Amino acid sequence: MSDAVVLMAYGSPERLADVPAYYADIRGGRAIAPEHLADLVERYRRVGIEESSPLNAITEQTRSALEAELGIRVFTGMKHWTPHIADAVESAIAAGAERIAGLVLAPHYSALSIQGYREQLEAAVAGRATLVFIDSWHDEPGFVGLLADRIRGTAAHVVFTAHSLPARILASGDPYKEQLLETSRLVAEAAAVDDWSFSFQSESPTGEPWLGPDILDHLGELHGRGIDDVLVCPIGFVSDHLEIRWDIDVEARERASELGMRLDRIEMPNADAAFIRTLADIVRWALRVPSPA
Ligand code: FEC
Questions:
Q1: Confidence class for position 293, pLDDT limits 50, 70, 90
Q2: SS3 content of the chain, % helix, strand, coil (to 5)
Q3: What distance, in Å, lies between the first and last C-alpha atoms of the chain?
Q4: Does the global pTM surpass 0.90?
């Protein structure tokens, strides 16, 4: 059977002029307040997307390295930008794929995040190939080990972070928060780090309560406990993008500085060779294909 991978990522606008259409796609037709759009354009401008779009470029590096590692075709599909998930599926089918592994570059399952990727993928495949969708890989040993390597030996208090989601997910038994806490615990144990906590980041102004604590409040709380040296370890994202370069590198750093705290963050996995090997292991396991000797 001919296999292919559809490697999915959130997607990012290539230039400032793309931001309104990109935000409209994220909002799925719901209204956008003009001040929220203006604020988003300004954040993208401040992180310099006129020069480069980190998420899209990193996703392409990841795709090409994963293809080389697996020896099967890998096609990129973006949830909110081009090439869309449906475009990737068309390319995979045109290349003769009879079985498609769907892998999202986000480790934790939620009905409000990963399920959206899954629905786009299933609709596009429409029964034309066998679909093997990977729901989550939050406890994958290679991923845990890679993050553990980046925090091991630190003298700072480690704050694991992930994208917040509307708090209503808890009422439906969504595993998102539990998976995040499990990744945090596994990474801390693997690195022999005892001094750690978890907080959410990147809450969006949608007018409903989101999961907390938000990192900006959490830093204040840590400061109140006498902690003044923090290492941020984002576990819900795998690459440098707006939520890292703005929400952590600018906003959280500014808050830490106001409080007189030191704040660093780990290097993101991006297209690191060890991370690519981990992604390849996840795909091989899902497809029940043996690893090379
Ligand atoms: O660098 C970039 O250009 C893209 C960065 C980016 C990533 C990302 C990942 C996740 N999001 C998740 C959930 C939500 C929910 C809403 C929402 C809104 C936004 C907006 C931008 C944005 N997200 Fe995102 N997200 C990224 C970017 N996200 C921009 C809109 C403006 C803003 O909030 O600043 C709210 C939707 C709504 O309005 O109804 C919910 C989750 C992830 C992590 C999993 C994944 O990567 O898919 C969950 C990267």
A1: low
A2: 45, 15, 35
A3: 21
A4: yes
| pLDDT confidence of residue 36 | 96
What CA–CA distance (Å, rounded) separates 264 from 248? 9
Tell how far the Cα of 147 is from the centroid of ligand 1, in angstroms: 22
* Nearest Cα residue to atom 5 of ligand 1: 242
Run of H or E residues at 233: strand 229-234
- Does ligand 1 lie within 6 Å of residue 23's CB atom? yes
Answer whether 112 contacts ligand 1 (Cβ < 6 A): yes
Angle at CA 217, nearest 5°, toward 37 and 256?
90
Question: Is 163 touching ligand 1 by the criterion CB < 6 Å?
Answer: yes
Backbone angles phi, psi at 102, to 5 degrees: -100, 115
- 13: how many CB neighbours lie within 10 A of its CB? 24
